[in-house]
């Protein structure tokens, strides 16, 4: 039985120390100082630093929302079948992890030294390598126990990668610094090429950086490396914050001259690399901090293949994209948010006060029948009913918005000792979400922030909103009662705090850390280098080069001629001025380049707005990257001198 499908007493006694299901109405569930310090079974509660002590966070809104959810489910006679979460053995779990990380060739029948994986492994930091080695070792032991006749590489050999034709290897065994394997015999031309810092800068101590700014989020150094270096130091003290919104740390991102990279700025082929690196980095971070990281796996169940509520996100988007091409979040989800906002976000108790249960159920059924026909009358939908429908939509997804695979990892963020580490883990988890889930979560968090912006009128502070929304995102019925019984108050307060973090720091969460982007750049550069060496031994290469050179000489125009040193040629195929040579200066930014093109007063430029077009970095050591306006072009050019520069819209 689902933990939410029993009687009201079952649901509430799973959380409340009094065990009195009627007490919540009379205020008996508001937590006092004594109860806040321990879980219902009497175990000491010592997580106050990582998630704020429970007496600092009034949990009343949480329990009330949980009761409302139960009442809604109790009135729903067509309750959705619970999703069963499998518990694979450790070997299977690590095999799946290696597959997800794109390293399946390190074990099993596919064992081999594929070029792609070898290049990938060569870019990992010390802590990332340790995480991979740990999983390979577990798989190795499991296969031996099962007497599988697979060729399993010695874990010590995995990182002995050839870095050049002279046979130099990199084993990743340096104990205190993280660096890639460098060939001391590099030619002068290679030495002048761009360098990618994947870890700790040799000239700077990360501990000194931390002392200088406790609220600065360092995106240049691997998070797991930062944790490893802080683990036993006095700097690694807990960053405590109270329950008030204003007491959360004011985390900020330092300016990066080569530009901040957001989710959506990179091409799909590079995002695939980002996913693998984020998975390895998150695992390494959890390993360093002593928190178990296990991906869950859901058993396949039959789901609805049409409709609105209880339909997989992928099915909804497939339906919606036929009506609105290019839409990234479900239309019903967007419409419910619009309905709430059209009334006013100043309504007191917005999101907290539920709609009338019978009316919400009736509206739900009517929407299922009329929404896509366009005959549903939205004038009949009251604001609180729309808010209840929005939360119902999130809860009734066949798989949680945060996914079965990573929901527990999101919950376990509360166990990390420092708030900065919690934020780093959330950043990596957001990178791991499927695109549809990530886009929907982003729209939700942005909406919740707009609600909070009107807190003076609606009385919905960050804390209130987090308390109300946490049960809808985290109490997924597929995980059954076991998880709840083990966690109880700790999980409730912890997930509420994770929700606070996701809302408060949402702009940071959609940033791809620079150290991961640099690892992607290095992978691309190394792959290109190896590909060039492979092509050099092919007889056809000389003929291909000759034909290409001949063709280019015939077709070359003055505009395509090689540009002088310190000048870039920017293409804008969709604008009236299709090409422009631009002199690089220390202060020239990407936004300045776009502005020069838009200043041309002819053609379709007049219809374009600055926020619709961007400068893109294409090729070289990146697939494609949309640049933010504050990117300093000279610094980026030095990092990727072989790139092409193109102005276009994100939709082109």
Automatic annotation (TrEMBL):
InterPro entries assigned to the protein according to its UniProt record, in alphabetical order: RHG40/28/18_ubiquitin, Rho_GTPase_activation_prot, RhoGAP_dom
Composition bias type Basic and acidic residues, residue spans: 181-193
Cell inner membrane keyword on record: no
PROSITE patterns referenced in this protein's UniProt entry, alphabetically: RHOGAP
Stored Pfam families: RhoGAP, Ubiquitin_RHG40_C
Domain of life: Eukaryota
Region of interest (Disordered), ranges: 13-57, 166-198
CDD domains, per database record: RhoGAP_ARHGAP18
Keyword presence, Transmembrane helix: no
Annotated keywords: GTPase activation
SUPFAM superfamilies: GTPase activation domain, GAP
Domain Rho-GAP span(s) in chain numbering: 311-510
PANTHER family linked to this entry: RHO GTPASE ACTIVATING PROTEIN 18,19-RELATED, RHO GTPASE-ACTIVATING PROTEIN 18
Listed name of the protein: Rho GTPase-activating protein 18 isoform X1
Species lineage: Eukaryota, Metazoa, Chordata, Craniata, Vertebrata
Gene for this chain: ARHGAP18
